[in-house]
Every structure is written in structure tokens, then in C-alpha cells.
């Protein structure tokens, strides 16, 4: 089992960036296999859709550090842990610019980048980024096409429904082709994972049943078989969303359950539930010690 942890990126943590480099190094020294950020653009005053699983938008979302900039900064001061995003809402970004950013981050991290993409849930965020929400799935498909070409071809050229890239020299390539992971809950999304991705990104809350994760694994296996792909070639990284009332026992029980399901990489996303980086380190220490 590999254990990763989210970086303090939201709310009060945004005023303590000076502590973040040492926080990341401390997590790496404790044995964290990966360090993670996530993606938000807005905290709508009058949301059309609330944060999934709640009846509101968390106040922590009122202040957010940019995920791509944060991955670059933390990647530059660490040496071993993978640096991932779970998830980046890819349809918001012009793919050619995203490809340049992610390639740069992979070079900064010496091949430790793990990009995780999703489609998002907030209509207001799509309005703010100027992207029709109804196009998000097709735009993600084109983004994946362009990233693949950018990372494997030279010259690169692309003509799609939403983006056109005139033939261009792209001599700079990532240290390794970044392993693309996708969030998925619907049949169409599982089909996309099976056809296009290196891995799947399920989500669970410690202390709550993980039945939906098991069901997702079954759906993923069916989609892989439909795509004539060995399900064992699809990596799974389970995100555990830690809430303020989550206990260490809740977390380690969820990790043990994931292990029984055959999941070998778990992300503990708990910085919104801790008041300081010091508390985040203490939480990581408890989880890692119990796992050992």
C-alpha cells in the first residue's frame, strides 16, 4: 500500500505558504508516497449546485492556491514523492497551454507528475471559464488527444471540434509520459478510463461504507473487458476525503478496506479538516505509523 497526502491549499492555509515547502519535505521524509493538490476556481455566493455530499460550498473554498503553480513549487523542493492533482478540471484549460504547463512540471519533478483529470460539478465555474458545461466530455476527449500527441510526437498537429493546433515543433518532452488518471462515476466515464487512461480516481469518506468503490471496480473491470484491455493495467488511486469529525481509526479502517479490494495507492485528503500544517503532519504520522 502506498499512502499519499494532500497539501494545505485552501482557506487559512493559503496565508501560510512559507510553511508549505517544509511541510512537503516533512511528509516525504515520513514516508508519503505522493503529494496532491486539487482544482477550484470559484466559491459561488449563490451556487446552482452545492459541493457534492453537502448542502453548501465550504468556506475554505473562499481562498485557494493555484494547483499548477503549487505543484511546480512543491515539486522543486522534494525529490521522491509523486506530485499529483486530483482532480484538475481539464475542460477549463486550452490543451496546448495545459500540455506546456504539465510538461514543465514533469521536468521540474524529474518525472514524478501524476495528472488526474475530471469534469467538475459547478455550473458557475464553467460560466467563469467561458466553457459551455454541456461540451465538457467532448472537450476532455480532445484534451486527451492533444496531450498524447504533445508528449509523444514532434511535430505536433491537431484539428478537432474545439481546438486546432497548426503543425508545430515540440522538442521538449516530459521525463516520462505522465500517467493520466481520470475520475469516473458514470458508464460513459468508465468507458473513457478503459479506453484512454492509465488509472481511475475513486472517492470515499472514511467512516462511511465503501460499497460504491467496490461497485466502481466492477464497472471498471467490465469497461476494460469491453475495450479488450486487461483490468490489471488500470491503476487505482482512492481519495479519502477527511472531514472534521473523521478519526484516525476511520482512516486506517478505510485504508485496510481499500487494501482488501486490491487498491494499492490511497490519498488522504485531509488538509481542510486540520487547522494548521502541524496538525496535518500529526495526522499523516498517525496514519503512516498505524499502516507500518
Task: Give the topology, please.
Layout: E1 2-6, H1 20-30, E2 34-37, H2 67-77, E3 82-89, H3 95-108, E4 113-118, H4 123-129, H5 136-152, E5 156-159, E6 164-168, E7 181-182, H6 187-196, E8 199-200, E9 203-204, H7 211-226, E10 235-241, H8 248-260, E11 265-269, H9 277-291
Parallel strand pairs: 1-2, 1-11, 2-3, 3-4, 4-7, 7-8, 8-10, 9-10, 10-11
Antiparallel strand pairs: 5-6
Helix pairs in contact: 1-9, 2-3, 3-5, 6-7, 8-9
Description:
This protein is α/β, with parallel strands linked by helices and 292 residues long. It has one domain: Alpha-Beta Barrel (TIM Barrel), CATH 3.20.20. It has 9 helices and 11 strands. The chain has helices spanning 20-30, 67-77, 95-108, 123-129, 136-152, 187-196, 211-226, 248-260, 277-291, and strands at 2-6, 34-37, 82-89, 113-118, 156-159, 164-168, 181-182, 199-200, 203-204, 235-241, 265-269. An 8-stranded parallel barrel has the order 1-2-3-4-7-8-10-11, surrounded by 5 helices. Strands 5-6 form a two-stranded antiparallel sheet. Helix 3 links the parallel strand 3 (82-89) and strand 4 (113-118). The radius of gyration is 18 Å and the shape is globular. The termini are close together.
| Helical segment count | 9
- Tell me the major beta sheet: 8 strands, parallel, barrel
CATH superfamily: Luciferase-like domain
Distance between the termini: 10 Å
Instruction: Provide mean pLDDT, rounded.
Output: 95
- Form type: globular
How are the strands ordered across the major sheet? 1-2-3-4-7-8-10-11
| Structural class by SSE content | alpha/beta
Spans of 5+ residues with little confidence (pLDDT < 50)?
A: none
Helix content percent band:
25-40%
CATH architecture: Alpha-Beta Barrel
Amino acid at each position: 500500500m502506498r499512502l499519499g497526502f494532500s497539501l494545505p491549499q485552501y482557506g487559512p492555509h493559503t496565508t501560510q505558504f512559507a510553511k508549505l515547502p517544509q511541510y512537503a519535505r516533512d511528509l516525504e521524509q515520513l514516508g508519503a508516497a505522493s503529494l496532491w493538490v486539487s482544482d477550484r476556481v470559484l466559491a459561488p455566493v449563490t451556487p446552482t449546485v452545492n459541493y457534492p455530499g453537502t448542502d453548501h460550498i465550504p468556506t475554505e473554498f473562499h481562498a485557494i492556491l493555484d494547483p499548477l503553480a503549487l505543484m511546480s513549487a512543491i515539486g522543486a523542493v522534494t525529490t521522491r514523492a509523486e506530485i499529483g492533482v486530483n482532480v484538475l478540471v481539464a475542460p477549463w484549460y486550452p490543451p496546448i497551454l495545459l500540455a506546456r504547463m504539465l510538461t514543465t512540471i514533469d521536468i521540474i519533478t524529474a518525472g514524478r507528475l501524476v495528472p488526474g483529470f475530471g469534469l467538475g460539478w459547478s455550473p458557475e465555474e464553467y460560466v467563469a471559464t467561458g466553457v459551455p458545461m454541456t461540451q465538457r466530455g467532448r472537450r476532455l476527449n480532445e484534451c486527451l488527444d492533444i496531450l498524447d500527441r504533445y508528449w509523444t510526437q514532434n511535430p505536433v498537429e491537431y484539428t478537432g471540434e474545439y481546438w486546432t493546433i497548426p503543425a508545430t515543433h515540440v522538442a521538449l518532452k516530459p521525463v516520462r509520459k505522465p500517467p493520466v488518471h481520470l475520475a469516473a462515476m458514470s458508464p460513459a466515464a468508465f468507458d473513457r478510463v478503459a479506453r484512454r487512461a492509465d488509472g481511475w480516481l475513486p472517492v470515499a469518506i472514511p467512516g462511511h461504507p465503501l460499497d460504491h468503490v467496490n461497485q466502481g471496480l466492477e464497472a471498471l473491470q467490465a469497461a476494460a473487458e469491453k475495450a479488450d484491455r486487461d483490468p490489471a493495467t488500470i491503476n487505482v488511486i482512492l481519495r479519502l476525503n477527511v472531514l472534521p469529525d473523521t478519526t484516525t481509526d476511520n482512516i486506517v479502517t478505510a485504508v485496510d478496506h481499500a487494501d482488501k479490494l486490491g487498491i494499492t495507492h490511497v490519498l488522504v485528503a485531509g488538509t481542510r479538516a486540520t487547522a494548521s500544517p502541524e496538525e496535518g503532519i500529526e495526522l499523516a504520522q498517525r496514519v503512516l505509523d498505524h499502516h507500518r
